[in-house]
Every structure is written in C-alpha cells, then in structure tokens.
Design brief:
By secondary structure, this protein is mostly helical. 54% of the residues lie in helices and 3% in strands. It folds into 3 domains: 28-120, no CATH class; 140-212 and 290-344, no CATH class; 219-285, no CATH class.
C-alpha cells in the first residue's frame, strides 16, 4: 500500500483510516498501533500543550480498553478490521481527549468491550454505539441516576432467600451510586432529551417494585391452619412453605415471587388448581407499602434516602430506553464488576 493516503468526505462525515493494511488475526500490538492511527488520522489538530494532553488522554483510554478487552473478550480483537469498531473506538478516544474525566473513561471502556461481544449490526451493538455517543453528554450525577433507576426498576435477583442477602446486593450494586444521584427535574428532562428515557404520567412506587420483585421477603406470615383451609390436596410441605422470614412463629410460601413462584410450583408438579390457591395465599399475605419500606430501612438504613429520592423525583415516572439501560448497566459494572449480560434486558 502507498504511504500516501487520501480520503474525501462530505458534510459532517468522519474519515477513518488505519494507516496500514489490516488483517484478520491481529496481535495486541498491531491492534494498538491501529488504535493510535485511528486517533491521529481523525482528531482535530490542537496546538501546543492542548495537543499533548489530548493525545495522552486518547492513549490512556485506548490502553485501558485494550487491556480490558484482552482480559474479558480477546476474540473481540478480530473486529479491529471493521470500520464500525474503529468508529466506536474513535468516539471513545475523542470524548476522553476532550473531557479527561476518568469516570467517563471507565464507562466508555465498558461500553466498548461490551460492543465487541456482539456481531456487526446486531441490535445490541447498535444500541451500544448510540450509548458511546450519548454518555459523554451526561453529568456524573445523571449517569449515577440512570444506573440507580435501571437497578431498582429493571433488575431482580431471584436467588435471594433472606433479608441479609438482600442487603448485600444493595450494598454491592446500589450503595456506591447514592452519593451521586440527583432528584433534579432538569436532570431528568435532560436524560429524556438525550434519548435515555421518558417521563410518563403514570408512576410506580418503589414499595410496589420490591413487592413484585422480592415478594418472598415481605410476607407477614400465617398459621398452619391457613394451609389446611386450602384443601386436602395441599399439605405443609417444606418445599412449599417455610418459617416466615419476618415472624418465625408463622409460616409463609417459600421465598420466590411472581411468575417465578408459578414456575417453581410447576416444577414440583403442583396441579393448576392448587397453584392458584397457593399464589393467592402468597399475594394476600403481603406486607403493606409502609411495612415494606420500614423493613428495607431496618435492613439497610441508607434505604431511607433511596425511598426519598424515588418519591421526590421523576424517578417514579421514568422509564428507560434501550440506550438508557445500556448506560445504566455499564455504570453499575464500573462499581461492581460483571452484572449479567446486557441481552437479558435488551433483545
């Protein structure tokens, strides 16, 4: 290939060129060289110290991306030949070169690594491309707020069997965000403007979310006579009923919730008629919203601030788009490490 390369673009297009032939099966160093060339070939020419700072930042985010890619998804190196890969990488380089914000850089790296796990033009990859362009338009407070809404409204852990395990997942995934979240209406309006979500007329309380996601943790308990009243085909079986988590003198339906309870009963080959009776018993035994809130706060006192944030902000009305979910998902991973595959929520 000639050492003299030229490209002509129209309007607001960006000319991406690697500066050398790109082959399948590239080594780490070869991909790193391509990454450097992508930045140098496309970023505007700054002067003096500004140019040095920008280039240093671009190399910083590139090195972090390649190191994480090598650890988590080394097969992603083969995408270095793809123009979409180079454009996404350049977006991250450009944005970190401009801002120098380390939190944003870490988030962009997570989004880039996730992007390599999907094939070109896959729907999730398209969402991640848009997320790379959208995240730099948000403040750290808005990013934390997106992550908190995503975690509280769209995720649940079906394996929880105690309040302490509930508290532990709150410590891991939610607590690190609490120092940064905002209840500002203007911030939520900006999140909506940026395509991360929509402020709806209807609302959902946090107590209701917990009642649906973690029903088994918030039961008042019943006497064994309540089981007898269900009929002779239902017995006090430890696979169905356990000591109540909130009152050891009583019983409750085993700590699974919603559709998961129905699936669990199906696995046990419980008849459809008896399944309806057990689910109804479970639903009728649920704590009130005030009791659910008090239980959460007694489990982790900082949850008082979470309930206040939810009830006194548009969070209770805010539904996320696929882009909002992708950014929220990546921001949680920044603090907690791996957090499920994004395809669980976007498919």
């Amino acid at each position: 290939m000639s050492s003299h390369q030229g490209q002509h673009v129209e309007g607001r297009s960006v000319a991406l060129q690697a500066g050398r032939d790109v082959n399948v099966g590239l080594s780490y160093d070869e991909v790193k060289d391509i990454a450097r060339d992508v930045y140098k070939s496309n970023f505007i020419q700054l002067s003096g110290m500004a140019a040095e700072v920008a280039e240093s930042r671009a190399e910083e985010v590139t090195d972090a991306f390649l190191a994480k890619l090598q650890r988590e998804s080394p097969s992603g190196f083969r995408q270095a030949r793809d123009p979409g890969f180079q454009y996404a990488l350049y977006t991250a380089q450009k944005e970190h070169a401009r801002s120098g914000d380390q939190d944003l850089a870490d988030l962009l790296v997570d989004l880039l690594v996730d992007r390599t796990k999907y094939e070109p033009r896959d729907f999730i990859q398209i969402v991640l491309d848009e997320s790379l362009s959208t995240a730099p338009k948000l403040t750290n407070a808005q990013l934390a707020t997106l992550a908190a809404v995503f975690y509280l409204r769209y995720t649940k852990d079906l394996g929880l069997g105690s309040h302490e395990s509930f508290g532990m997942i709150l410590d891991k995934y939610l607590a690190p965000l609490l120092g940064s979240i905002t209840n500002s209406m203007a911030s939520f309006q900006h999140l909506e403007f940026s395509g991360c979500g929509a402020i709806a007329v209807t609302e959902i309380t946090l107590e209701r979310i917990f009642a649906v996601h973690y029903q088994g943790l918030f039961m008042k308990g019943f006497d064994s006579s309540a089981i007898e009243e269900l009929g002779p085909t239902i017995v006090n079986d430890s696979r169905l009923f356990i000591p109540c988590l909130n009152d050891q003198t009583k019983l409750q339906v085993k700590a699974v919730c919603g559709n998961s309870l129905k699936g669990y009963l199906e696995q046990l080959q419980v008849s459809e008629e008896d399944t309806v009776k057990i689910v109804n018993l479970c639903d009728s035994n649920l704590m009130s919203h005030d009791e659910i809130r008090d239980k959460c706060i007694s489990t982790r006192p900082y949850m008082a601030a979470v309930f206040e944030f939810w009830s006194n902000s548009p969070a209770k009305n805010f539904s996320l788009t696929s882009v909002g979910m992708a950014i929220g998902h990546a921001n949680i991973k920044r603090f907690a490490g791996e957090f499920g595959n994004l395809s669980i929520w976007i498919n």
